[in-house]
Amino acid sequence: MLSNSSKYALKAVLYLAVNSTENHKILVKTLSSRINVPKAYLSKILQELSKHNLVSSTKGPKGGFYLAEENREVRLVQIVNTIDGDNRLTSCLLSLNQCNADYPCPLHDLAGKAKSNFLKNLEETTVQDLVFDIASGKSFLPL
Amino acid sequence: MLSNSSKYALKAVLYLAVNSTENHKILVKTLSSRINVPKAYLSKILQELSKHNLVSSTKGPKGGFYLAEENREVRLVQIVNTIDGDNRLTSCLLSLNQCNADYPCPLHDLAGKAKSNFLKNLEETTVQDLVFDIASGKSFLPL
DNA sequence: CTATAAATATGACTTTGGTCATGTTTAATA
DNA sequence: TATTAAACATGACCAAAGTCATATTTATAG
């Protein structure tokens, strides 16, 4: 459903959303140990996210990664698509080219509703929304 | 969501369901060209399915693969689990160990409903059900 | 202006899923 | 009973995802 890389990306963004501000940046090293993702690999993922303006960073001493206000409006689907590409979630379950609502493959309906529901949620939900759930005790962070 | 191997397995079973009987067995070679899956790889998948009694086969001249009546009662989840293992579909979206309804990770609800819906469908649907959909024009076969 | 601390860029290594080729066993038929 | 046609079994190869190490760039602070 999601690649490992996407999961790591989501975990990282989530941690930054809760624990960082522009005045309190986080080192890759720290982030790595907090969310249990190998440092070097996490680096690569953060760079990709940074390049697409989904997270913020500054180099040099006192530098690090953080989420600016604009980053908090990012929708989860942007994160997933940036890392996994955008058709991982939309393609037919059997990977058939000609499979659509008018000419569905035998598994189309079976998966279709679940998938579109999931995708819709990813599209509608922002990072800030998740932070809100955590703050209000609806969900929990230990990553 | 599903591995390539699972997709191939589903396609193969579906083709056999529609086109084979105990008196009309299908060669791997034929199946391969009909569903566009490399012959050698398809072989391996069919062997795995056969070992678990999800498809039937006989060796030797006049041999081949087919679906016996019992095979038509197989549920899709059995096919997927046999090929992919059984936790690919059930594990947490972020692959967290401690994530459950009482202590959900921030993405739990977002994916949970979609995933459990999909899983439920795989558990409830038999091969025969899909054949029925095809026969009644609800879905289409070209694989 | 220099030293240093951090992200960034690049590329190599490893693991795993997917692909293929070869040989072995089984069963039908002549 | 010999031949042959098929599934079955095993293992090697390949490609992509995941993992890691090294070098470069940038910014801060003394």
TL;DR?
The structure is a homodimer of 143-residue chains. With 143 residues, the first copy, chain A, is mainly alpha-helical. Chain A contains 6 helices and 2 strands.
Give a description of the structure.
Two copies of one chain form a homodimer. The first copy, chain A, has helices at 4-19, 28-35, 39-51, 76-84, 108-124, 127-135; strands spanning 56-58, 64-66. Chain A is built from six helices and two strands; from the N terminus they run H-H-H-E-E-H-H-H. In chain A, a hairpin with a 5-residue loop joins strand 1 and strand 2. Chain A has a two-stranded antiparallel sheet. In chain A, helix 1 (4-19) crosses helix 6 (127-135). The mean pLDDT of chain A is 92. Chain A binds a DNA duplex (30 and 30 nucleotides) through residues 3-5, 25, 27-28, 38-41, 43-44, 46-47, 50-51, 57-65.
Feature tags:
homodimer, 143 residues, mainly alpha, Arc Repressor Mutant, subunit A, two-stranded antiparallel ribbon, DNA-binding
